[in-house]
């Protein structure tokens, strides 16, 4: 029995929706129902002996919020329950999670193999930052297992993918890539932000670490930056925690509290956004001036069978190409009145961006072409609005192309 007299269930035996409401909750002596924000830098000790023991790690307890914090710990525990992970560490942003996961697992002289289809900042870390510290990298076509095998070296320590990818929504075989990593003594890191922990479980498929930008669906309302790294206890505590503790890219307690509140509604939001995304994708697929549509929930997706195998749904993102290149894509997006132009995603509001000039603008035209990021490509993050209103908005923007005569160029 707890101090309040309530019986406590093992949170691991609860279903995800319940875990996301109750998991990891720590109550103070005041018995608050909503999680408390421990907005503090440091913690007081009852004695000098206690301070010494905690700093040495001989006694449990909080020391300094750069090391750990009760509100952040609640967020980490709740996410670990949802993900099926032994441990988790929260970070100040999604890119802090990506960077810490990579740098935590490699040393000078090591080698990383990554899928070529990555978010622009992730490509920068792999191609530009890691080599500065003596870590070589090789980029491959993530869908081609033969390329993964061919790229492996004796010094390869990490394989890194996004699935689905940003922005073209390719889906990679996580279990097969994990097997290649483990056969060669390497670890697999999966950026699962597009699928969300509701729709895909990379750790269950063999990944060693999974990373998220909590800025996206986990917050889901466009408010706070954050990230999280999840995996086995040994790798988190041995390779990830010391790096975060000593370099400091940690999550603020306030942002952790916002994420805790958002997690309570995550399954509801993702399911509704996914339903809307499916309807929007079907509308666009049958529309004039739309050259192609990419949505993992459609039967015409290139990896449709793999999607059925490793995902619980198609997700909340739709990629589509407008005929007429950049001028037509700009005119289309500028005409939208409900859907907002923004390079964020996973928001309750529908957001659209032009990847060639935003998320992937630093790449050469040739590199963008190799990824399928054309001048007419748009990435739509579908929100919680009524799907019929979103379709009306898109239809009016297509009418604008007719009016300007741009799509036929």
Write the layout of secondary structure elements.
Elements: H1 16-22, H2 48-56, H3 70-83, E1 87-91, H4 94-105, E2 111-115, H5 120-132, E3 136-140, H6 145-151, E4 156-162, H7 174-183, E5 187-191, H8 196-199, E6 209-213, E7 227-231, H9 233-247, H10 253-263, H11 266-285, E8 290-294, H12 304-310, E9 317-322, H13 325-335, E10 340-341, E11 351-353, H14 365-371, E12 377-381, H15 387-404
Parallel strand pairs: 2-3, 2-4, 4-5, 5-6, 10-11
Antiparallel strand pairs: 1-7, 6-7, 8-9, 9-12, 11-12
Describe the structure.
- With 409 residues, this protein is an alpha/beta fold.
- It has two domains: 11-263, Aspartate Aminotransferase, domain 2, CATH 3.40.640.10; 266-404, Aspartate Aminotransferase, domain 1 (Alpha-Beta Complex).
- It has 15 helices and twelve strands.
- The protein has helices at residues 16-22, 48-56, 70-83, 94-105, 120-132, 145-151, 174-183, 196-199, 233-247, 253-263, 266-285, 304-310, 325-335, 365-371, 387-404; strands at 87-91, 111-115, 136-140, 156-162, 187-191, 209-213, 227-231, 290-294, 317-322, 340-341, 351-353, 377-381.
- The strands form two sheets. It has a seven-stranded mixed sheet, with helices on both faces.
- Helix 1 runs antiparallel to helix 3 (70-83) and helix 4 (94-105) packs across helix 9 (233-247).
- The longest helix is centred in the C-terminal third of the chain and has 20 residues, at 266-285.
- The model has no long low-confidence stretch (mean pLDDT 95).
